[in-house]
Amino acid sequence: MSIPEMQWAQVAEKIGGPLVYKQIPVPKPAPDQILVKIRYSGVCHTDLHAMMGHWPIPVKMPLVGGHEGAGIVVAKGSLVTGFEIGDHAGIKWLNGSCSECEFCRQSDDPLCADAQLSGYTVDGTFQQYAVGKATHASKIPKGVPLDAAAPVLCAGITVYKGLKESGVRPGQTVAIVGAGGGLGSLAQQYAKAMGIRTYVDFTKSKDLVAEVKAATPEGLGAHAVILLAVSEKPFQQATEYVRSRGTIIAIGLPPDAYLKAPVINTVVRMISIKGSYVGNRQDGVEALEFFARGLIKAPFKLAPLKDLPKIFELMEQGKNCRPLCPGNAGVDMRVCHTRVLVEPRTQV
């Protein structure tokens, strides 16, 4: 395949932006990397946090953001054996890891101290061509549409990992907080596909604790709670409606928020509180397999890459859903699960 020397990309040249749509060199794959011609990239709230420097983790500047990129392998390094030219591949948040530390040896590579993060510590997928370590890239079956698969590469894998971490079994119950959003809608679908019963926090609930407990067998509460909210209060409420010996999984990342729980209640009811980060390589394989079988669907809206600053602006205002969901001009972003995808192949 013919690979150009230059490409179009959205570049944050400093913390806080603005984004600059310009041409930059096409990266060359290292011996253990693949070069992917990005056809679609999901836009995640994490991308906005990265550009704005909201998190206490050093971010690369200048930066090409994005970490939900789906496309076609057009070049590969000399050590790569798992991909061939023309294969479909996904570039995820975890772009690479050291493969040598204790965490990597135990398949906990997301916890690697030297992990490379797409669109955060290394350039990501808001460009026409992106590189990633072949061992961490996801192979996407040829029959799977690349646009629909893009959101699974981050949002899907993240919630699937959280459900696995909760230890909840088929037939048991899980409460999904923030179920109306992009992560939450996928969490519901994965839970259903895994045989798990879901109880959801809709924003209209008048007494969340009582209603969740009443909806569960014997009124004992949910076996697990998946916290996907972007505000702090739900993280404080969860111990009130999880059942004894239940598990609370924190996934959402509201800035400057804290987890708090009554010590006596937590101890005597043997409640577990855990954080869940992104999935490892096998989690990615499994999450995509559910999608390939037609069990997971993520509604999306396409936009050209040059419109990314506008998308970020709407995201910051919580208004992305209004121009993106036909017939729902007044809908609140908190209860909308339409995903925005940008198309890096659009040049001007």
TrEMBL record:
Its EC number is 1.1.1.1. SUPFAM superfamilies: GroES-like (SSF50129), NAD(P)-binding Rossmann-fold domains (SSF51735). Its cofactor is Zn(2+). Gene3D superfamilies: Medium-chain alcohol dehydrogenases, catalytic domain (3.90.180.10), NAD(P)-binding Rossmann-like Domain (3.40.50.720). Residues 16-320 form the Enoyl reductase (ER) domain. Keywords: Metal-binding, NAD, Oxidoreductase, Zinc. The keyword Oxidoreductase applies. It is an enzyme of class 1 (oxidoreductase). InterPro entries: ADH-like_C, ADH-like_N, ADH_Zn_CS, ER, GroES-like_sf, NAD(P)-bd_dom_sf. One of its GO terms (cellular component) is cytoplasm. GO terms for molecular function: alcohol dehydrogenase (NAD+) activity; zinc ion binding. Belongs to the zinc-containing alcohol dehydrogenase family. This is alcohol dehydrogenase. It comes from Penicillium hetheringtonii.
